[in-house]
Q: What sequence folds into this?
């Protein structure tokens, strides 16, 4: 990690090993805001993170609420919903590629053309390609949010629940005044962990879109990888990596501090 | 009330089905004959994908992955348990240490990859060797094992240690004979996760590994090239790589979920 920090001040490119010792001051950082691809990658990553994070939290909460309110068999559903995070990310990426692939190869398109006579070229448009990436991540990690929330639900004291049943509290009020306040620390934890993982997304981009169309879905992690190891501007990639590391450290310090208060 | 219950069962079952669809897809495609594997509307059964996969040398890839994963698991568990035990028994400064570990855990791999590439592959000459992969994976997974295992050690009362000391055990004996057996579950969960993450890793392997030590993930990714995609072999390989872990996680679901949740508490 210190190496990354040091390299971020150099003009290191892989074909020329000696350049690792060529210090160029803050030039890598100064160049960042003027790199249109970096700015766009940052924006798209922002959109990706916000949409996926909110979808995962809502879906996870909804699932946990439903499974928790089941009187019987909730264990089976818990097992089922814990499976997606055990799938190899690479494999799940391939599966989603297969689901959304264009032509008659993709499962969704095949059934769309069978029943509705239409097809959508999911991976050919920037926004739908981003949507596929979001769905892949939501598939794996909304169940992760589910597991955290479910643990939260089971930690609510029984007598409070019983009291609320007795007092004819409506379901809406129960969610608003009992479940949500009790789950607040769990929601914060889940949000931080999902955020971390959303910034790590790499395998699915590599497999599903390859960064296309027109490099639109090159999210930060992938963009750093590409500049460093395919375009060989390691120094420049290190500058971006350093920025992300600083950003994440700030986020964790803030949230861990808040968790201490709760 | 009855109607409402029925409705929620219906919704949950539907959602459960949706979540199972990709896994079912995986199973269906792995056993499809190669001629119809890209046609979602046709179904069939054959084992030819698996035969062709192993003719391409997939066994070697599994062997590579397993060697790397097992060595990594061994190292991470050794380091993680010792670190976990001592920071749980000597809490002075342990919170800082724990936070530091948590921070290490969250940094995206691409940020590490440059450092890994420079240090391990270029300076130490570990490019395309097994230890070139084991070193960074150990560095990345030890914090995780530590975070999983430490709460288990916290749960063991300190009086147990003291009783053993009074009875004439050395410190080392206390650790190996008393503490380790009691914390067995936690250590197993930690091993499981460290195994999964090493075995599933793609990004680090992409940087460090060339052709000699190709892992399962690299081999799977290599089946998709610019011109041709060998879907049949690909999903057969994916099946072999994923299904054992899914089966294990169904059987030991309770422990694994607990480990997962503990590891998230930071």
A:
């Amino acid at each position: 990690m210190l190496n990354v920090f040091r390299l971020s001040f150099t003009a290191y490119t892989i074909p020329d090993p000696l350049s690792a010792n060529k210090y160029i001051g803050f030039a890598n950082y100064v160049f960042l805001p003027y790199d249109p691809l970096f700015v766009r990658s940052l924006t798209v990553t922002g959109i990706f993170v916000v949409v996926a994070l909110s979808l995962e939290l809502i879906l996870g909460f909804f699932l946990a609420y439903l499974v928790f309110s089941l009187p019987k068999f909730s264990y089976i559903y818990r097992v089922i919903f814990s499976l997606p995070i055990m799938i190899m990310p690479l494999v799940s990426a391939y599966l989603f590629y297969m689901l959304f692939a264009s032509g008659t190869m993709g499962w969704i398109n095949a059934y769309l053309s069978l029943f509705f006579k239409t097809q959508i070229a999911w991976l050919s448009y920037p926004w739908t390609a981003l949507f596929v990436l979001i769905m892949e991540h939501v598939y794996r990690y909304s169940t992760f949010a589910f597991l955290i929330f479910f643990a939260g639900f089971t930690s609510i004291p029984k007598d409070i629940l019983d009291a609320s049943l007795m007092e004819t509290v409506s379901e809406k009020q129960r969610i608003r005044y009992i479940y949500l306040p009790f789950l607040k620390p769990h929601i914060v934890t889940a949000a931080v962990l999902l955020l971390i993982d959303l910034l790590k997304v790499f395998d699915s981009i590599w497999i599903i879109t390859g960064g296309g169309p027109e490099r639109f879905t090159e999210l930060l992690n992938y963009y750093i990888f590409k500049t460093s190891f395919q375009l060989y501007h390691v120094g420049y990639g290190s500058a971006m990596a350093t920025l992300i590391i600083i950003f994440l450290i700030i986020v964790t310090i803030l949230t861990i501090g808040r968790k201490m208060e709760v | 009330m009855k109607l409402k219950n029925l409705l929620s069962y219906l919704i949950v079952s539907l959602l459960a089905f949706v979540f199972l669809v990709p896994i079912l897809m995986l199973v269906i495609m792995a056993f499809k004959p190669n001629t119809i594997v890209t046609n979602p509307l046709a179904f069939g059964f054959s084992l030819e994908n698996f035969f062709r996969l192993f003719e391409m040398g997939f066994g070697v890839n599994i062997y590579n992955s397993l060697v790397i994963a097992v060595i990594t698991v061994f190292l991470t568990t050794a380091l993680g348990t010792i670190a976990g035990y001592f920071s749980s028994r000597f809490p002075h400064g342990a919170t800082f240490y724990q936070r530091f570990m948590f921070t290490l855990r969250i940094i995206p791999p691409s940020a590490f990859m440059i450092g890994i590439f420079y240090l391990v592959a270029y300076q130490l000459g570990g490019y395309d060797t097994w230890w070139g992969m084991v070193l960074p994976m150990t560095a990345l997974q030890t914090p995780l094992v530590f975070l999983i295992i430490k709460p288990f050690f916290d749960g063991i009362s300190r009086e147990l240690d003291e009783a053993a000391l009074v009875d004439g055990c050395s410190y080392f004996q206390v650790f190996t004979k008393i503490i380790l057996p009691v914390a067995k579950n936690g250590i197993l969960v930690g091993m499981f996760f460290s195994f999964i993450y090493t075995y599933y890793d793609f990004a680090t392997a992409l940087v460090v590994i060339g052709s000699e030590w190709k892992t399962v993930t690299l081999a799977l990714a290599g089946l998709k090239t610019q011109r041709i995609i060998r879907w049949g072999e690909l999903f057969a390989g994916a099946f072999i790589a994923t299904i054992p872990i899914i089966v294990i996680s169904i059987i030991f679901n309770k422990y694994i979920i607990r480990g997962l949740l503990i590891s998230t508490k930071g």
Notes: Residues 23 and 243 of chain B are 9 Å apart (CA to CA). The two ends of chain B are 40 Å apart (CA to CA).
